[in-house]
Design a protein that fits this description.
Elements lengths: L2 E5 L4 H12 L3 E6 L3 H4 L7 H6 L4 E4 L17 E4 L6 H4 L3 H20 L7 E7 L8 E3 L3 E3 L6 H5 L15 E2 L13 H20 L2 E7 L1 E3 L12 H10 L4 E3 L6 E6 H13 L5 E6 L4 E3 H12 L5 E3 L16 H7 L7 H12 L9 H10 L5
Parallel strand pairs: 1-2, 1-4, 2-3, 4-5, 5-9, 9-13, 10-12, 11-15
Antiparallel strand pairs: 6-7, 6-8, 12-14
Helix pairs in contact: 1-9, 5-7, 8-10, 10-12
C-alpha cells in the first residue's frame, strides 16, 4: 500500500481526507498537535480523533518540532500539508501564534523533507482564497481591477462595496482566477501566501511535484462546532440552537464561495494522484457566491430557530467583501468539478448539526476580543 502522511490530519478536512484515502487502499499516517480549540481538553474524546484512531497511524506532535515525527516521512508516496492556525479575525491579534505555526511549521516540514533519504514523490499544501484579498472586480468604465483593502471611512458610512480607483463607482465582483493579484488583507492570508510560496519553491528546487490548493470556505458534517473563530455556518448554527441573536456584519450582502467537504476531498485526492510533474497553485471551490444573509436565513429556517437576525452595519478590519473561485484551471489540470450545490449541502450539514450535542455559544466572547483589539467597528 502506498503511504501518505497528512500533517494536520485530524482536523475537519484532514479527517475526511484520511477516511477516503484509507477506503481507497492507502496507508495513512496522521501527524497533528490536537489543539484544544478544535478538539477540546481531552483530544482522545473528540469526535474527529475517534473517527481516525482505528483506521490509521496517529502521531501527536507539533508541526514545528520535526525531530519528533521526521522518521514518518521516509518512503511516503505523498505529503499533504494541512497544518495551520485558521481564522481571519483571530489572526489579526494573535500574530505571533499564526506566523509561528503556519510559517515556522512549514519551514520545519521542508527541512525535514530535505533530510529524508527516500523522498516523497509529491507534496500538496492547503492554501486559501484569503491570499487574494478582495479578488477580482469589474468597472463598467475602466475594466478589471484588483482593489486593495476597503477604506475604513467608507465602511463607517455604510459603503461596503469596493469602489473604482478611477471613477469612484461601485464595481461588479468577478470570479477570481489564479493569475489575479495576490494581496491578502489579514495576517492569516499572509501566512497562507507564504506557506504556498515556500512549498512551490521547494518543489521547483528539488524536482518534487508540488501543488497548492487554494481552498474556498469549506463546510459540511464533521466541522468543529466548538470553535467560535472560524466557519460561519458552525458559528451561526451554535447560536441558533440556543436561539441567540445573530449579528450580521456590514449589510449582509457580502458573499463567500462555500464548498462542500466531499468536493474538497475529491480535489485533494486528484492532486495527490496526478502522475505528471507539477508545480502550480489552483483554486478549489464551488464557483458560486452566496451572501452571508442568505446563509443565516437558510439555517434559521432549517433549524426552526427563534434567533433574531440583526443586520447592524458593523464591520471587521481584515474582512473582504466578495470572493468566489474561477475553476477553469482546476477543471483543466485536475479534472475537478464540484458536485454539491450550497442548497443541497447546507441541508445535509444542518441535519448533521441537529444530531450533535449542543455546545455553549462562545461567539459573543470572540466578538468581545475583536472589539477590545480595535478590530470590530
Amino acid at each position: 500500500m502506498k503511504k501518505i502522511v497528512i500533517i494536520g490530519g485530524s482536523g475537519f478536512i484532514g479527517s475526511n481526507l484520511t477516511k477516503t484515502l484509507v477506503a481507497k487502499g492507502y496507508s495513512v499516517i496522521v501527524i497533528d498537535a490536537f489543539t484544544s480549540q478544535i478538539h477540546g481538553k481531552d483530544y482522545r474524546k473528540s469526535v474527529l480523533y475517534q473517527s481516525l484512531c482505528n483506521i490509521c497511524t496517529i502521531v501527536r506532535a507539533d508541526v514545528r518540532k520535526s525531530a519528533k515525527w521526521r522518521e514518518y516521512l521516509e518512503g511516503a508516496f505523498a505529503i499533504v500539508h494541512l497544518a495551520a492556525e485558521t481564522g481571519t479575525g483571530q489572526s489579526m491579534y494573535q500574530i505571533s501564534r499564526y506566523t509561528d505555526v503556519n510559517i515556522e511549521g512549514t519551514s520545519s516540514l521542508l527541512e525535514a523533507l530535505g533530510r529524508t533519504k527516500n523522498k516523497p514523490e509529491r507534496i500538496v499544501v492547503a492554501s486559501s482564497r484569503a491570499i487574494y484579498g478582495e479578488g477580482k472586480y469589474y468597472c463598467d468604465e475602466h475594466g478589471f481591477q484588483f482593489p486593495s483593502s476597503r477604506g475604513e471611512a467608507d465602511m463607517a458610512m455604510g459603503v461596503f462595496d469596493p469602489l473604482c480607483s478611477a471613477c469612484g463607482k461601485t464595481m461588479h465582483p468577478m470570479s477570481t482566477d489564479e493569475n489575479s493579484r495576490i494581496q491578502p488583507t489579514s495576517i492569516y492570508g499572509i501566512t497562507k501566501q507564504v506557506q504556498e510560496q515556500m512549498v512551490l519553491l521547494y518543489g521547483k528546487m528539488t524536482g518534487m511535484s508540488a501543488i497548492a490548493l487554494r481552498y474556498q470556505n469549506v463546510y459540511g458534517p464533521g466541522q468543529s462546532l466548538k470553535n467560535p473563530y472560524t466557519g460561519i455556518l458552525s458559528i451561526f448554527s451554535t447560536a441558533m440552537l440556543h436561539d441567540n441573536q445573530i449579528e450580521i456584519f456590514e449589510d449582509g450582502e457580502e458573499s463567500r464561495d462555500f464548498v462542500y467537504i466531499d468536493d474538497i476531498v475529491k480535489a485533494t485526492i486528484l492532486a495527490i494522484e496526478k502522475v505528471e510533474t507539477s508545480n502550480y497553485a489552483v483554486n478549489v471551490g464551488s464557483g458560486i457566491p452566496v451572501s452571508v444573509l442568505k446563509v443565516a436565513e437558510t439555517l434559521k429556517r432549517l433549524y426552526g430557530s427563534k434567533s433574531d437576525i440583526h443586520v447592524g452595519g458593523k464591520y471587521r478590519i481584515g474582512d473582504i467583501r466578495h470572493n468566489f473561485a474561477d475553476l477553469l484551471l482546476a477543471r483543466n489540470t485536475l479534472g475537478y468539478t464540484p458536485s454539491m450545490t450550497f442548497d443541497d449541502g447546507v441541508k445535509i450539514f444542518a441535519h448533521w448539526v441537529m444530531s450533535q450535542d449542543v455546545y455553549p455559544d462562545k461567539y459573543e466572547n470572540s466578538m468581545a476580543e475583536l472589539k477590545q483589539k480595535g478590530l470590530l467597528k
